[in-house]
Design goal:
Layout (H helix, E strand, L loop, with lengths): L1 H17 L8 E6 L8 H16 L4 E6 L7 H10 L5 E2 L25 H9 L1 H7 L7 E16 L13 E4 L3 H9 L3 E4 L5 H7 L4 E5 H6 L8 E4 L4 E9 H5 L3 H19 L2 H14 L6 E3 L2 H11 L2 H9 L1 H9 L3
Parallel strand pairs: 1-2, 1-3, 5-6, 5-7, 8-10
Antiparallel strand pairs: 3-9, 4-7, 4-8, 4-9
Helix pairs in contact: 2-10
The structure holds (2S)-2-hydroxybutanedioic acid.
(2S)-2-hydroxybutanedioic acid (LMR) binds next to loops.
């Protein structure tokens, strides 16, 4: 009797510790993210991952995706992932890791990457992979990167030169680099959760924002702005992350199979992100509501580079000059 009781207590303790039952019960992975609809690059990637796991690992593992911040916003996601109980997986934008690591600040440096191919080269390099491991001691593991795309700027008045941004209040993600970037323009910036942005632009709580074509299109930000200026000044990409406690508690064969499926989905979806963003740029241009897209002349673009690039120096100490050099090298 005592032996049985001890075995049960050990199983309960193992479950509490890892989130995985000692019995061959179905393992449930709650995947939380903040984008919505059916056509967004992250929605497509998260759903493809879930569908494939649910089909190929049926009865052993199930992935439930919670989009649009319906389970957690990205700030709370990080806190909950460390605990590893109420959510196991997510894919926040790389700009949202301030509370966990300062190393990810590299991804917000303005005009660091020329295009998404350069971002891909950096992320798949040794240095890029090293960054994924920089959260281990905080209880979060980075498994891979998913692409969204290059950021554009929109405001309630035309933006052609950096001086046009002076005095505007921008909504930014949870990143001090992005605050500094807007201040370098003589603007101010407010950190705000993604799901509040449309309302804040509409009511004038903020005047302006920066985001990818896919986010501007799927959230209809362009409808409540004067127009979008094609600056391509930065990126929004994602780190696919898991609770370390949960992940390391999985049986080896299950973890390996999940990694394999994630790898397949990443390869497939990342190839499509550029095309998708271009498609949504086209949809905005065709829209009957506020569809103005402004492109920059080489001289105008250079003026934005000159205004924003000095913020690199401010963050070099946190990021490391070697990391910045490696990212720059990926443009070649
Ligand atoms: C934002 O908050 O603007 C983005 O990080 C949302 C997202 O996940 O693409």
């Amino acid at each position: 009797m005592r032996i049985v009781k001890t075995a049960i207590m050990a199983a309960v303790a193992a479950t509490m510790l890892t989130g995985v039952s000692a019995k061959a019960e179905e393992i449930v992975i709650k995947f939380s993210h903040v984008t919505g609809g059916t056509v967004h690059p992250k929605v497509l990637a998260a759903n493809a991952f879930a569908e494939r796991v649910n089909e190929r690992m049926k009865g052993r593992v199930r992935v439930d995706v919670f989009p649009s911040g319906s389970l957690f916003n990205d700030d709370d996601l990080l806190i909950e992932l460390i605990k590893g109980k109420s959510v196991q997986m997510g894919a926040p934008s790389l700009a949202k890791f301030e509370s966990i690591t300062k190393k990810f600040r590299i991804f917000d440096l303005p005009f660091l990457f020329n295009d998404i191919e350069a971002v891909n080269r950096f992320q798949t390099s040794e240095k890029g992979q090293e960054l994924l491991r920089s959260m281990e001691n905080k209880g979060i593991l980075g498994l891979t990167y998913w692409h969204n795309g290059m950021k554009q700027m929109s405001a309630n008045r035309p933006l052609a030169m950096p001086s046009d941004a002076k005095g505007l209040k921008f909504r930014v993600q949870q990143s001090d680099v992005l605050i500094a970037q807007m201040e370098a323009l003589g603007a101010s910036a407010q950190k705000m959760a993604f799901k509040e942005v449309y309302g804040a632009l509409q009511t004038g709580v903020v005047d302006a924002q920066e985001n990818t074509w896919s986010n501007i299109y799927t959230k209809k930000f362009y409808e409540v702005q004067d127009g979008v200026t094609e600056t391509n000044h930065g990126i929004i990409d994602y780190a696919v992350i898991v609770s370390r406690r949960f992940w390391e508690g999985l049986p080896d064969d299950i973890r390996t199979e999940l990694e394999q499926i994630l790898h397949e989905v990443t390869e497939e979806r990342n190839q499509k992100s550029f095309e998708l963003n271009q498609k949504y740029r086209g949809e905005i241009a065709k829209s009957p509501n506020n569809n103005t897209i402004r492109t920059l002349t080489p001289q105008q673009r250079q003026a934005w580079v000159d205004a924003m690039k000095p913020v690199w120096k401010q963050f070099e100490g946190d990021i490391g000059a070697d990391m910045i050099a490696a990212a720059q090298a990926s443009n070649m």
